[in-house]
Design brief:
By secondary structure, the chain is an alpha+beta fold. The chain is 34% helix and 29% strand. The chain contains seven helices and 16 strands. Strands 1, 2, 3, 10, 11, 12 and 15 form a seven-stranded mixed β-sheet that branches. Strands 4, 5, 6, 7, 8, 9 and 16 form a seven-stranded antiparallel β-sheet that branches. The chain has a two-stranded antiparallel sheet with strand order 13-14.
Length: 322
């Protein structure tokens, strides 16, 4: 009888604790105020401390340590089992930024699958063409010049006549990367807080072998880890869609872009830090998104200290051809 009462008491405590976290999380979802995110973190941390203290009081410190070790081993076994089934070392991840709006939202928990077959456009390049791809040449009117990253990145850090023209007439600008040409045009960005649209220069298509290819949201979304020395390495794992795949003499590299970002990842260059990004090799690849679970990822974000979202989350890029 005493055992039944103890189990009933534990069940009530667990339900109460879970309810408190859910209610606080709902407050965050509706207000997006970082205070509620921090409060969820405190609640999780507090519940763990309380549970450990109650366990020590009821069963003694030795039994509590034993139960804790068993719980940790169970989590590790579950993680490795899930990794084996899904063929990836990172079967679960959380969306931190808003670069994939509207198809993935900040706070989504995503399940990854490590299958290496990727759905995207594919271009055949030689090793020399690939090296040329890594060194972009800006084409404007009848002029050409080598550029780091892209004209978009250049104009993020510079204000001159060229950038004024790029802002006003982006369709006049292209970037030549070996046999691939990146074409600019005008997109619209919606600002939900002000309920307005604003024009924005963006990559609208890629030309290869005489054919023009447009962004396709049906392509797979990847999770990859940038290498040290790349700009995105400072951010951590990246969750972006594969727009194009380069087959370089049998070795494949992926070109990714956030659905809410105006340019490819390889076009992003930080001029003050002098850091850019390279195409995604299979060594960086962690898996492709199999499914998303809304809101659950917030728990991981809050435990990691990501309590607030930036203003970028209140905007959404829209393509004219979609």
């Amino acid at each position: 009888m005493d055992r039944e009462k103890i189990l009933e008491e534990i069940s009530k405590n667990v339900l109460l604790q879970f309810s408190i976290i859910v209610v606080t999380l709902l407050f965050y979802i509706f207000t997006k105020h970082p205070f509620f995110g921090f409060l969820v973190f405190i609640e999780i941390f507090g519940i763990v401390i309380i549970e450990v203290a109650l366990g020590v009081k009821k069963k003694g410190i030795k039994n509590e340590i034993k139960d804790t070790i068993i719980a940790l081993i169970s989590v590790v076994v579950f993680w490795f089992a899930l990794s084996f089934i899904l063929q990836t070392s990172s079967p679960l991840n959380a969306v931190v930024s808003c670069s994939m709006l509207p198809n993935l939202e900040r706070g989504d928990m995503i399940v990854l699958y490590g299958m290496q077959e990727i759905n995207s456009y594919e271009f055949q390049l030689t090793e020399q063409e690939f090296q040329d791809f890594l060194n972009p040449v800006l084409l404007y009117e009848n002029q050409s010049a080598e550029i780091k990253g892209s004209i978009f990145s250049y104009c993020m850090y510079n204000t001159d006549i060229l950038c004024d023209e790029f802002s006003s007439n982006p369709e006049r600008f292209r970037e030549k990367r070996g046999p691939v040409t990146l074409n600019y045009g005008e997109c619209k960005r919606y600002y939900s807080s002000e309920n307005i649209y604003s024009p924005e220069s963006c990559l609208v298509s890629i030309t290869y072998d005489g054919d023009e290819y447009y962004p396709d949201f049906s392509h797979d979304t990847l999770v990859y880890a940038p290498e040290k020395g790349e700009y995105y390495y400072l951010t951590g794992d990246i969750i972006h869609r594969v727009y194009f795949t380069l087959d370089v003499d049998g070795v494949k590299y992926h070109l990714t872009k956030g659905d809410n970002n105006p340019v490819l990842d390889v076009q992003v260059y930080n001029y003050p830090l002098e850091l850019g990004n390279l195409p995604i090799s299979m060594e960086k690849y962690k898996g492709k998104v199999l499914l998303r679970i809304p809101y659950v990822g917030y728990l991981k974000l809050f435990i990691s200290g990501f309590f607030s979202e930036d203003e970028y989350c209140k905007t959404q890029l829209e393509y004219s051809h979609l």
